[in-house]
Amino acid sequence: MNEQRASQATSHQSFSETGEWSRRRLLGFVGRGGAAAGVLGSGAWGHWGELRLPELMGTSVPPEVWEERKTARSAGAILLDSNENPFGMCGGARDALIEAAEEANRYPGEYQSKLRRRIADYHGVPVDQVATGSGSTDILRQAAGAWVRSDRSLVQARPTFEALGFYSRARGFDAVGIPVDATGRHDLEAMRAVIGDDTKLVYVCNPGNPTGTLMSQSALDSFIEDLPSHVIVLVDEAYHHYVDDPTYVSSLAHIEKGRNVLVARTFSKVYGMAGLRAGYAIGPAPLIEELRVQRLQNNINAIAGACAVASLNDEKYHLSQRTLNADARKILTDGLDARGFAYWESQTNFVMIMLGRDVRPTISAFRERGVYVGRPFPDVPTNLRVSIGTVDQMKRFVEEFDEVMGMAS
Ligand SMILES: Cc1ncc(COP(=O)(O)O)c(C=O)c1O
After folding, report:
1. Is the CATH number 3.40.50.150 carried by domain 2-88+316-404?
2. Pocket around ligand 1 at a 6 A CB cut-off
3. 312-321: per-residue pLDDT in tens?
4. Distance 139 CA to ligand 1 centre (A)
5. 24 alpha carbon to ligand 1 midpoint, in Å?
6. So where are the chain's domains?
7. Distance CA 205, CA 213 (A)
8. In this predicted model, what pLDDT tens digit does every residue of 85-121 receive, in sequence order?
9. HSE value, Cβ hemisphere, 13 Å, CA-based, for 130
10. Which of 389, 385, 56 is nearest to 209 (CA)?
């Protein structure tokens, strides 16, 4: 069923790429004047420039930019910018969505409670070890609310997924940011060196975003084991399901050993539910209680709850997604290898490429060709983050890469 949906999605994509894709149509749209062209056609690279909280959280992106994306997509543009699953949800989740829609006039307590219980069963922990969030971004928001009290409270890598740092800043506090090492991995030694009495929370993103890299298991284990007992480690495993390194073990194992560790997971990636918003954290019950104090009432809506439960009931689906992702990622990395471009070794559904030049004009050039790629990351301004789509989309990306980088013969 799931494989079937995946292949349907693939063939739909290739149809639209070969049959309906029209660069002229897209360029016509972008060049037509009007608001979207104003934002995009200036030769600049759009709305990500200022990297302020509202933009990153999607609340202040002008409506015409969303409109432009939608129009560009129907003209055949592909979205390789937000690390989404190109195939969507499993069949069971699609059915659950329709059923739950019938209950949209009711508050979602039942769905929320069912999901919390299902997550607990899935991980073999009691319910009081599970917190839910409206996406795992919401778990990060709850963590900032629970534990960030000063500029020294939070230690994290640079670059990393920004939400926790932004929510800390929204509370008036900066994070201590430690640059990643040359391989794109958290520099755990340097992070350990800045952890002190005031440190409350250490954010570890494994695999990392935007780096895509997986940490050495033994280095991460020793890092966690060596931390003072007043420090909480929040391990963000948003990309857990994509990892195929056999040495990898989820940090859930540390929770079983009684350590102050929280693991955050999301339904937005392998389960294909980014638009529905559901995520969760597992941890020791007292920490989960502190997180839950910060939660919004009903942070899981009926549809998200129903789809998330159905997703957890379909183990086969995420395994098939990992394979599809790895195959498509290989198209990209083979293409980069052949062209002599370096990239960080990815265990995720995206790859960070070292362009060796300011990424912003490149992002614009791709967009003008109907390929939406990742935004700039100020800590690595010459790197380009490309999300993994279908095999056909990655072939298209490689072709466009030659054009954009001036390598086409
Ligand atoms: C590392 C990481 N954590 C958390 C999230 C947030 O996911 P969501 O809020 O959609 O669950 C993302 C999204 O891209 C991410 O990359």
Report:
1. no
2. 83, 135-137, 161, 205, 209, 236, 238, 266, 268, 274, 279
3. 999 999 899 9
4. 10
5. 34
6. 2-88+316-404, 91-314
7. 9
8. 999 999 999 999 999 999 999 999 999 999 999 999 9
9. 22
10. 385
